[in-house]
Design brief:
alpha+beta, five-stranded mixed beta sheet
Length: about 120
């Protein structure tokens, strides 16, 4: 549906940018679900993701705070589990940082599916 703006008595139709879809990581998650206890959560399910992460499991959800590049937010209450996830995915361990408000560790993940599929 189009959006309209009224500027100095003239009605303008505003184009709405379509959000690009994030890469499909379902194949990656299914291979990791048993080894790393990984679950994907929708943006509307973030409270459940936090609970899952605080139990020491890995929760992944879409991250719309990154406007330039689309990404996922990966959270886990057990740093060692998150380090293991990083090793498997080829993510540098120094991307991990502690949350200021919650009892978990987290990182922003920009999946490069081309290199993962080639491996």
């Amino acid at each position: 549906m189009a959006e309209y703006a009224n500027f100095q008595g003239v009605l303008y139709i505003l184009a709405r940018r379509k959000k690009k879809t994030l890469p499909d990581i379902s194949g990656i998650l299914s291979s990791l679900s048993e080894d790393c206890h990984v679950r994907f959560f929708k943006l509307t399910d973030i409270p459940e993701a936090v609970t899952w992460a605080e139990r020491g499991f890995i929760a992944i959800h879409e991250n719309y705070h990154s406007l330039r590049r689309q990404s996922y937010h990966v959270i886990c209450g057990n740093r060692d589990n998150l380090v293991n996830f990083c090793k498997i995915m080829g993510i540098p361990e120094d991307y991990i940082c502690a949350s200021e408000f919650y009892r978990f560790w987290h990182l922003t993940w920009f999946p490069n599916l081309d290199s993962r599929e080639a491996a």
